[in-house]
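Me: Here is a favour to ask of a fellow structure person. Could you put it straight underneath, so I can go through it closely?

Assistant:
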Amino acid sequence: MIWFAAAAWAQETCTPVQAATALAELPAPAVLVLGERKGAPLDLRRAARLVRSLQRLNQPVTVALEAVDTAQQPALDDWIAGRIDEDALPAALQISERYGFSHAPYVHLLDTAQTGADLVGVGLPYAAAPADAPLLVPPGYSFQLVPTMGGSPVPAALEETFAGAMAWRAAEIASRALGAWNGSGYLVIVADRALVEGGLGVSWQLQRQTETPVRAIVLADAAGPCLAGDRVWRDLLGR
């Protein structure tokens, strides 16, 4: 069953989208969810370019980062206010320790604070959903998550638990981002691609928490495998 699901996923087609097109159809206020390959420099440069393009529309932009834990928000605030320098930022944000990927690729997004973006940490430790948490799990979510596991598939007996944990994580990221945004301009959420693909992750949870328009873009090339209905970055210059 796992092989069949992965094969079907790889054969699906998606919609390539360029930044200019995405922005033209997204008047403020709006929420844009960007799916990153965690720590991938190309994806994060693209995310930063989208943020800067939004800033040029003369609208306020809030950038919510899964890579930065909510607990590290004071360090982000110090960075925005100029109370901490770039050399001290990696130790203060602890992206490598908490998210498991190098700080360096996220500098592109962190630097958008220097041109007025508000930065918000919406990350949290990986864990099972709390027993008392209100949990909305999209239909068929466990089947969609199978291909994201690569060579480490979840045992069948744990698929439901895993799907619940991922749904809770997506809902928490959505809730934390919305809670930190004043509703003006644009909210850009940059999260693990696995929580964006297929429309059943962060964007699905957002649509149940807000009436503001929500759009999602997967930041990798559109030439690769993707889930049906996904909007995937296409850049003829390859940047």
Remarks:
- The chain has ten helices and seven strands.
